[in-house]
Specification:
Elements (H helix, E strand, L loop, with lengths): L1 H31 L6 H8 L1 H6 L9 E5 L10 H14 L6 E6 L1 H8 L6 E5 L8 H14 L5 E11 L2 E9 L2 H8 L12 H51 L1
Parallel strand pairs: 1-2, 1-4, 2-3
Antiparallel strand pairs: 4-5
Length: 246
């Protein structure tokens, strides 16, 4: 009875800690989800000439998959759903043309066995709360890995509410395809700096800002899932304790 009561106290405390962290993550999500995320995308949507000149999609694309998970567990199915989603996605692609850039210890552990040939890079122990320079550094590694790829697919949990999140696949262009597409830009004319200088900078903004939004969503989803998991664990401990006292 004493051990069950102690477990109930621990899970209740963890729930309160997760609720506090989720509040901070939500504040960062609401403040940063529009930071540059749609700025470059709007160039492609508003320039009709550019849309007509975009390179056609490749039938058998080379893909870099970027699953974002956490380093810690005790957060329900938040990480396992990402791993299952990656497995399902790889089954629809040409496995020989897939590469995985895993972020988070739980994702790396979950994918090392089914994808030993695809897991090229793994990053763990990323400091939290996330900051933009850290995400920018990871974006550089992703850009280098995707030099010969046709698309980048970021897999993350999109925050919906305190009790709900959905797995989202965000498709992004690799640097080579982005620069080839921007050559046909007509709507936004510029002289200084020239396109050879500005377009690579725009790609860094395009890739990093979208990754930033994915990280913010995933952090909020992780804390909400951990809060719910600890609440359920506390309820279970309370029910067991009450059953033992009868």
């Amino acid at each position: 009875m004493k051990s069950v009561g102690s477990i109930g106290k621990i899970t209740k405390a963890m729930k309160m800690v997760s609720a506090s962290k989720m509040k901070g993550d939500l504040a960062r999500l609401f403040a940063g989800r529009d930071y540059g995320a749609n700025a470059v995308d709007m160039i492609f949507k508003s320039d009709q000439f550019l849309q007509r000149k975009l390179p056609a999609d490749v039938n058998d694309p080379a893909v870099v998959i970027v699953p974002i998970t956490s380093d810690k567990g005790l957060c329900g199915a938040t990480n396992s759903t990402i791993v299952r989603s990656v497995k399902s996605y790889v089954n629809t692609q040409n496995r020989s043309k897939c590469q995985i850039f895993s972020i988070g210890d739980k994702g790396s552990v979950g994918m090392i066995r089914p994808f030993p040939d695809l897991l090229k890079t793994s990053i763990s122990q990323v400091g939290t709360p996330y900051n933009y320079p850290t995400v920018m550094a990871m974006a550089v590694h992703i850009s280098n890995l995707s030099q010969d790829s046709d698309k980048i697919v970021v897999v993350f949990n999109e925050f919906k509410s305190a009790i709900s999140s959905v797995v989202r696949h965000m498709e992004l262009m690799p640097k080579k395809r982005f620069l080839e597409s921007m050559q046909f830009s007509k709507l936004y004319n510029q002289t200084l700096p020239d396109k050879n200088t500005s377009n690579p900078a725009l790609y860094e903004l395009y890739l990093t800002s979208n990754l930033w939004v994915a990280f913010l969503n995933n952090a909020a989803s992780e804390q909400s899932a951990r809060m719910n998991a600890m609440e359920n664990a506390s309820k279970n401990a309370k029910e067991i304790f009450e059953g033992l006292t009868m």
